[in-house]
Give the backbone structure.
Amino acid sequence: MSEQRQATIAGIAQRILVVRGRRVMLDSDLAALYGVETKRLNEQVKRNRRRFPSDFMFELNAMEIESLRSQIATLKISRGKHRKYSPVAFTEHGALMLASALNSARAIEVSILIVKAFVHMRGYLRSRAELAARIDELERKLAGHDSRIAGILDAIRRLAIGPLETSRPIGFTADLK
């Protein structure tokens, strides 16, 4: 796979958010990827409502919108840039269903990249979970070694301080007085 394609997949993966415990992409991000306006994308969803059950897409509530607004720039400052409607979040299946609803060559290409991005994200999350499990296992194994390690460190500190009593130097010493 080319480096440019890998970068594209990584860019798409960065747009995948976790909302309500599900990995989703916002309608505005998908519209940008598919090369259509968000309004047009949502119109196609409304026209093909039967293709988008609740486990494929859902509208964000006020608290989720505010949370996203603080995390990413979903609201532009200039006049006329505010959204009238709540953003819609599409799961992996919903994002793929959009390709069939939009029915264009670009939609097919982008849907393939979106699938690869979701797979990439799944692998990343799985590797993080495996790493966390390994760290937990290591902590359990080392739990009994804490006192031994503390004893070793204490002995090293005592050696670093040096002998407490000053003794006569070893070897020949000449008084130069």
The chain is about 60% helix and 10% strand. Residues 47 and 77 are 31 Å apart (CA to CA). The first strand starts at residue 17 and ends at 19. Residues 3-122 form one domain.
